[in-house]
Amino acid sequence: MEIDLVQLSRTIAYALRHQPASFGLTLDEEGWVSVDSLVGALCQHRSAWKQLQISDIEKVMALPGKRRYELRDGRIRAYYGHSIQQRMLREAATPPTYLFHGTTPAAYEQIRQSGLLPMGRQYVHLSEDRETALQVARRRTSQPIILVVAALHAHQAGVQFYLGNDSVWLADAIPPDYLTRQ
User: Would you say 56 and 116 are in contact if contact means Cβ atoms under 8 Å apart?
Assistant: First the structure.
């Protein structure tokens, strides 16, 4: 029986980003877990996945779209999006001059006052290009608002930025002074 790679990807995200303990997994301080442990947990999670292999995880990682997982030295982790209490350590990096964030009209009113906050996540998520930020916002609203983040200026003022993956940047929070509505 062929494995539904989209469903497998969603389950991996849930296990690595939100509920590792419910899969019997313990992430290290950087979010890594043995890929063998993940495969074993997934095999137990769904009877249709009893024959799951590491190659199936690699197929998920090769799916088109955003890169969500990193596989290295027999370990795997989710790049970003964690809602677990254990904060994933990231290495600070110098961001590009500008980054983008897509949001809803209702959220924008709060952002104008308090800036960008991680809300239920560990970090604020930012896009390297306007189009990606627009796609993200369109998941929640038909009237997206795009914010331009003066990332380099904020970084020079002490705001920490972290590279999430090829096109996603993370930050602890962005004060409203560094945000402009586009």
Answer: no
Contacts of residue 109, Cβ cutoff 8 Å, sequence gap at least 6: none
Q: What does the pLDDT average to over 171-175?
A: 95
Question: Please, are residues 102 and 136 in contact by the beta-carbon 8 Å criterion?
Answer: yes
Element (H, E) at 34: strand 33-34
Distance (Å, rounded) from C-alpha 49 to C-alpha 168? 31
The answer to whether 28 and 74 are in contact (CB under 8 A) is no
Domain architecture of the chain: domains with CATH: 5-78 (1.10.10.970), 99-181 (3.20.170.30)
Task: Enter the tokens of residue 94.
Answer: 């110098």
What is the token pair recorded at 173?
């929070």
Sign of CA dihedral 60, 28, 84, 170: negative
Query: What angle do the packed helices 5-13 and 54-61 form, to 10 degrees?
Result: 90
How far apart are alpha carbons 65 and 16 in whole angstroms? 18
Q: Could you read off the pLDDT of 55-89 as tens digits, one per residue?
A: 999 999 888 877 788 888 999 988 766 555 555 66
Q: What is the pLDDT of residues 23-50, one digit of tens each?
A: 888 888 778 899 999 999 999 888 889 9
Task: Give the C-alpha distances (Å, rounded to integers) separating 77 from 6, 23, 56, 71, 80.
Answer: 17, 14, 15, 7, 9
